[in-house]
Amino acid sequence: MTTYALAASAEMLYLDLPFLDRVRGITERGLQVEIWDWSTKDVDALAASGAEFSSMTGYLEGDLTEPDGIDALLTTARRSLDVAKRLDCPRLNLHGTGLDAKGLPVRPVDTVTPAMWLTAADTLRKVAELGEQAGRVFTLENLNLAVDHPGTPFGTAADTLALVRAVDSPHLRMNLDLYHAQIGEGNLIELVREALPYIGEIQVADVPGRCEPGTGEIHYPAIASALRDLGYTGVVGLEGWAKNDPDDALDAFEAAFACI
User: Fold this and answer.
1) Keyword Isomerase, does the record have it (predicted)?
2) Active-site residue flag, 239
Protein backbone atom coordinates (compact mmCIF):
# COMPACT_ATOMS: atom_id res chain seq x y z
CA MET A 1 0.00 0.00 0.00
CA THR A 2 1.30 3.46 -0.84
CA THR A 3 2.09 5.83 1.98
CA TYR A 4 2.13 9.00 -0.09
CA ALA A 5 -0.37 11.01 -2.13
CA LEU A 6 -0.21 11.74 -5.86
CA ALA A 7 -0.60 15.10 -7.59
CA ALA A 8 -0.24 16.44 -11.14
CA SER A 9 0.58 19.80 -12.68
CA ALA A 10 -2.32 21.61 -14.32
CA GLU A 11 0.29 23.75 -16.08
CA MET A 12 1.60 20.83 -18.17
CA LEU A 13 -1.38 18.54 -18.82
CA TYR A 14 -4.66 18.87 -20.78
CA LEU A 15 -3.12 21.81 -22.61
CA ASP A 16 -5.98 22.03 -25.11
CA LEU A 17 -8.42 22.87 -22.29
CA PRO A 18 -9.05 26.10 -20.35
CA PHE A 19 -7.08 26.12 -17.11
CA LEU A 20 -10.05 25.50 -14.82
CA ASP A 21 -11.02 22.46 -16.89
CA ARG A 22 -7.47 21.13 -16.53
CA VAL A 23 -7.83 21.42 -12.77
CA ARG A 24 -11.15 19.60 -12.90
CA GLY A 25 -9.73 16.87 -15.10
CA ILE A 26 -6.92 16.14 -12.66
CA THR A 27 -9.31 16.29 -9.71
CA GLU A 28 -11.68 13.83 -11.37
CA ARG A 29 -8.77 11.40 -11.48
CA GLY A 30 -8.56 11.58 -7.69
CA LEU A 31 -5.27 13.48 -7.76
CA GLN A 32 -4.14 16.64 -6.05
CA VAL A 33 -3.38 19.63 -8.26
CA GLU A 34 -0.23 21.70 -8.66
CA ILE A 35 -0.32 25.22 -10.08
CA TRP A 36 2.38 27.78 -10.78
CA ASP A 37 1.90 31.56 -11.03
CA TRP A 38 -1.35 32.34 -9.22
CA SER A 39 -1.42 35.92 -10.50
CA THR A 40 -2.48 34.72 -13.95
CA LYS A 41 -5.37 32.64 -12.58
CA ASP A 42 -8.95 33.22 -11.48
CA VAL A 43 -8.30 32.45 -7.83
CA ASP A 44 -11.96 32.61 -6.84
CA ALA A 45 -12.85 30.04 -9.49
CA LEU A 46 -10.00 27.79 -8.40
CA ALA A 47 -11.11 28.03 -4.78
CA ALA A 48 -14.63 27.04 -5.79
CA SER A 49 -13.48 24.16 -8.01
CA GLY A 50 -13.37 21.53 -5.27
CA ALA A 51 -9.76 20.70 -6.12
CA GLU A 52 -7.22 19.78 -3.48
CA PHE A 53 -4.16 21.89 -4.24
CA SER A 54 -0.79 20.38 -3.48
CA SER A 55 1.51 23.30 -4.24
CA MET A 56 1.74 26.67 -5.97
CA THR A 57 4.48 29.14 -6.75
CA GLY A 58 5.27 31.10 -3.61
CA TYR A 59 6.57 34.33 -5.12
CA LEU A 60 6.14 36.48 -8.21
CA GLU A 61 9.57 38.05 -8.51
CA GLY A 62 12.82 38.50 -6.63
CA ASP A 63 15.82 36.46 -5.58
CA LEU A 64 17.70 35.28 -2.50
CA THR A 65 20.78 37.51 -2.52
CA GLU A 66 20.33 41.04 -3.91
CA PRO A 67 18.72 43.68 -1.62
CA ASP A 68 16.02 44.69 -4.12
CA GLY A 69 15.48 41.06 -5.07
CA ILE A 70 15.10 40.01 -1.43
CA ASP A 71 12.54 42.75 -0.82
CA ALA A 72 10.56 41.71 -3.90
CA LEU A 73 10.68 38.04 -2.97
CA LEU A 74 9.49 38.62 0.60
CA THR A 75 6.77 41.05 -0.52
CA THR A 76 5.37 38.69 -3.12
CA ALA A 77 5.76 35.71 -0.78
CA ARG A 78 3.39 37.49 1.64
CA ARG A 79 0.91 38.03 -1.19
CA SER A 80 1.26 34.39 -2.19
CA LEU A 81 0.49 33.28 1.35
CA ASP A 82 -2.81 35.17 1.17
CA VAL A 83 -3.70 33.26 -1.98
CA ALA A 84 -2.55 29.97 -0.48
CA LYS A 85 -4.98 30.53 2.38
CA ARG A 86 -7.83 31.08 -0.09
CA LEU A 87 -6.93 27.87 -1.93
CA ASP A 88 -6.05 25.93 1.25
CA CYS A 89 -2.74 25.12 -0.45
CA PRO A 90 -0.17 23.83 2.06
CA ARG A 91 3.07 24.35 0.09
CA LEU A 92 4.51 27.33 -1.78
CA ASN A 93 7.43 26.78 -4.13
CA LEU A 94 10.60 28.87 -4.51
CA HIS A 95 13.67 28.89 -6.76
CA GLY A 96 17.17 30.29 -6.35
CA THR A 97 16.14 33.31 -8.40
CA GLY A 98 13.20 34.52 -10.41
CA LEU A 99 12.62 32.71 -13.72
CA ASP A 100 11.34 34.26 -16.94
CA ALA A 101 8.67 32.82 -19.22
CA LYS A 102 11.24 30.46 -20.77
CA GLY A 103 12.45 29.20 -17.38
CA LEU A 104 15.70 31.15 -17.58
CA PRO A 105 16.99 33.04 -14.53
CA VAL A 106 16.17 36.73 -14.47
CA ARG A 107 19.56 37.24 -12.82
CA PRO A 108 21.88 34.51 -14.10
CA VAL A 109 24.89 33.74 -11.94
CA ASP A 110 28.16 32.15 -13.05
CA THR A 111 29.76 31.81 -9.61
CA VAL A 112 27.97 31.70 -6.26
CA THR A 113 30.22 33.33 -3.67
CA PRO A 114 30.41 32.48 0.06
CA ALA A 115 28.72 35.80 0.82
CA MET A 116 25.82 34.86 -1.46
CA TRP A 117 25.39 31.57 0.38
CA LEU A 118 25.15 33.36 3.73
CA THR A 119 22.70 35.93 2.37
CA ALA A 120 20.55 33.26 0.75
CA ALA A 121 20.31 31.32 4.00
CA ASP A 122 19.35 34.50 5.86
CA THR A 123 16.65 35.28 3.29
CA LEU A 124 15.27 31.77 3.53
CA ARG A 125 15.09 32.06 7.32
CA LYS A 126 12.85 35.09 6.81
CA VAL A 127 10.77 33.13 4.32
CA ALA A 128 10.43 30.28 6.82
CA GLU A 129 9.26 32.76 9.47
CA LEU A 130 6.54 33.95 7.10
CA GLY A 131 5.51 30.35 6.54
CA GLU A 132 5.40 29.69 10.26
CA GLN A 133 3.20 32.72 10.88
CA ALA A 134 0.79 31.59 8.16
CA GLY A 135 0.88 27.87 8.94
CA ARG A 136 2.29 27.03 5.49
CA VAL A 137 5.48 25.45 4.17
CA PHE A 138 7.76 27.01 1.58
CA THR A 139 9.70 24.56 -0.58
CA LEU A 140 12.95 25.27 -2.41
CA GLU A 141 13.13 23.42 -5.72
CA ASN A 142 16.26 22.05 -7.35
CA LEU A 143 16.64 22.78 -11.07
CA ASN A 144 18.92 21.39 -13.73
CA LEU A 145 21.46 23.77 -15.21
CA ALA A 146 22.44 21.75 -18.27
CA VAL A 147 19.15 21.74 -20.21
CA ASP A 148 16.37 23.91 -18.81
CA HIS A 149 17.70 26.50 -16.36
CA PRO A 150 21.35 27.46 -17.05
CA GLY A 151 22.71 30.14 -14.77
CA THR A 152 20.29 29.56 -11.89
CA PRO A 153 22.08 30.01 -8.55
CA PHE A 154 21.59 27.36 -5.85
CA GLY A 155 20.03 25.18 -8.54
CA THR A 156 21.34 21.70 -7.88
CA ALA A 157 19.81 19.23 -5.47
CA ALA A 158 22.98 19.44 -3.38
CA ASP A 159 22.66 23.23 -3.21
CA THR A 160 18.98 23.28 -2.27
CA LEU A 161 19.46 20.58 0.32
CA ALA A 162 22.39 22.48 1.86
CA LEU A 163 20.32 25.65 2.20
CA VAL A 164 17.30 23.85 3.64
CA ARG A 165 19.53 22.09 6.14
CA ALA A 166 21.18 25.36 7.11
CA VAL A 167 17.84 27.02 7.86
CA ASP A 168 16.54 23.87 9.57
CA SER A 169 12.90 24.93 9.83
CA PRO A 170 9.81 22.76 9.30
CA HIS A 171 8.43 25.71 7.32
CA LEU A 172 11.21 25.51 4.73
CA ARG A 173 11.59 22.16 3.03
CA MET A 174 12.99 20.86 -0.23
CA ASN A 175 10.94 20.30 -3.36
CA LEU A 176 13.01 17.44 -4.72
CA ASP A 177 12.45 17.32 -8.47
CA LEU A 178 13.83 14.00 -9.71
CA TYR A 179 13.68 15.02 -13.37
CA HIS A 180 16.06 17.89 -12.68
CA ALA A 181 18.18 15.77 -10.35
CA GLN A 182 18.63 13.02 -12.93
CA ILE A 183 20.00 15.51 -15.44
CA GLY A 184 22.22 17.23 -12.91
CA GLU A 185 23.32 14.54 -10.49
CA GLY A 186 21.72 11.12 -10.87
CA ASN A 187 21.90 8.46 -8.13
CA LEU A 188 18.27 9.24 -7.36
CA ILE A 189 17.44 6.67 -4.69
CA GLU A 190 20.45 7.62 -2.60
CA LEU A 191 19.55 11.28 -3.09
CA VAL A 192 16.04 10.61 -1.81
CA ARG A 193 17.46 8.71 1.15
CA GLU A 194 19.81 11.57 2.08
CA ALA A 195 17.26 14.33 1.60
CA LEU A 196 14.28 12.52 3.14
CA PRO A 197 14.19 14.40 6.49
CA TYR A 198 14.07 17.71 4.58
CA ILE A 199 11.70 16.86 1.73
CA GLY A 200 8.42 18.77 1.52
CA GLU A 201 7.37 17.33 -1.84
CA ILE A 202 8.77 15.21 -4.65
CA GLN A 203 8.21 15.99 -8.32
CA VAL A 204 8.81 13.58 -11.18
CA ALA A 205 9.08 13.33 -14.96
CA ASP A 206 11.19 11.13 -17.18
CA VAL A 207 14.48 11.97 -18.91
CA PRO A 208 14.89 12.98 -21.68
CA GLY A 209 11.77 14.88 -22.72
CA ARG A 210 10.21 15.63 -19.33
CA CYS A 211 7.22 13.39 -19.99
CA GLU A 212 5.47 10.72 -17.91
CA PRO A 213 7.25 7.71 -16.36
CA GLY A 214 8.08 5.02 -18.87
CA THR A 215 9.05 7.40 -21.67
CA GLY A 216 12.72 7.69 -20.76
CA GLU A 217 15.59 6.31 -18.72
CA ILE A 218 14.40 6.58 -15.11
CA HIS A 219 12.97 3.40 -13.58
CA TYR A 220 10.32 5.05 -11.46
CA PRO A 221 8.78 1.85 -10.01
CA ALA A 222 12.08 1.27 -8.20
CA ILE A 223 11.97 4.80 -6.81
CA ALA A 224 8.35 4.25 -5.75
CA SER A 225 9.38 1.12 -3.88
CA ALA A 226 12.22 3.00 -2.19
CA LEU A 227 9.85 5.75 -1.10
CA ARG A 228 7.52 3.13 0.38
CA ASP A 229 10.39 1.39 2.16
CA LEU A 230 11.69 4.71 3.52
CA GLY A 231 8.25 5.58 4.86
CA TYR A 232 7.75 8.71 2.78
CA THR A 233 4.31 10.13 3.56
CA GLY A 234 4.28 13.32 1.50
CA VAL A 235 3.20 14.06 -2.07
CA VAL A 236 4.65 12.84 -5.36
CA GLY A 237 3.67 15.17 -8.19
CA LEU A 238 3.86 14.60 -11.94
CA GLU A 239 5.39 17.82 -13.24
CA GLY A 240 5.81 16.67 -16.79
CA TRP A 241 4.30 16.87 -20.26
CA ALA A 242 2.11 14.18 -21.74
CA LYS A 243 4.02 12.49 -24.55
CA ASN A 244 0.70 11.88 -26.31
CA ASP A 245 -2.64 11.63 -24.50
CA PRO A 246 -2.77 13.24 -21.02
CA ASP A 247 -4.99 10.51 -19.61
CA ASP A 248 -2.51 7.90 -20.81
CA ALA A 249 0.25 9.94 -19.16
CA LEU A 250 -1.58 9.96 -15.86
CA ASP A 251 -2.27 6.23 -16.19
CA ALA A 252 1.48 5.64 -16.57
CA PHE A 253 2.26 7.93 -13.63
CA GLU A 254 -0.22 6.18 -11.35
CA ALA A 255 0.99 2.74 -12.44
CA ALA A 256 4.61 3.62 -11.75
CA PHE A 257 3.80 4.80 -8.23
CA ALA A 258 1.24 2.14 -7.35
CA CYS A 259 3.80 0.19 -5.28
CA ILE A 260 1.74 -2.99 -5.51
Assistant:
1) yes
2) yes
The β-bridge relationship of strands 235-238 and 5-9 is parallel
- Residue 196 sits in a domain whose CATH number is 3.20.20.150
Measure the CA–CA gap between 116 and 70, rounded to whole angstroms.
Answer: 12
- The conformation of residue 197, written as its DSSP 8-state character, comes to G
> Could you read off the pLDDT of 182-240 as tens digits, one per residue?
999 999 999 999 999 999 999 999 999 999 999 999 999 999 999 999 999 999 999 99
Catalytic residue among 141, 201, 212, 254: 141
Q: What is the pTM of this model?
A: 0.96
Active-site option among 34, 201, 239, 254: 239
- Confirm if 4 and 227 have CB atoms less than 8 A apart: yes
Dihedrals φ, ψ of 202, to 5°?
-120, 135
Query: How much is the pLDDT for 72?
Result: 97
Known active-site residue 141: yes
Neighbours of 215 (CB within 10 A): 20
Inter-residue contact 10 to 23 (CB < 8 Å): yes
Give the domain extent around 115.
Answer: 5-257
Beta strands in 39-101 (DSSP E): 53-57, 91-94
Phi and psi angles of residue 53, each rounded to the nearest 5 degrees, phi first: -90, 130
| Tally of structural domains, the chain | 1
Average pLDDT, the chain: 96
Yes or no: say if 33 and 27 are a contact pair by the CB < 8 Å rule.
yes
**C-alpha angle 114-116-117 in degrees, rounded to nearest 5:** 65
Q: Give dist(CA 183, CA 188) in Å, integer.
A: 10
Dist CA 142 CA 94 (whole Å): 9
> Given the DSSP bridges, would you call strands 235-238 and 199-204 parallel, antiparallel or unpaired?
parallel
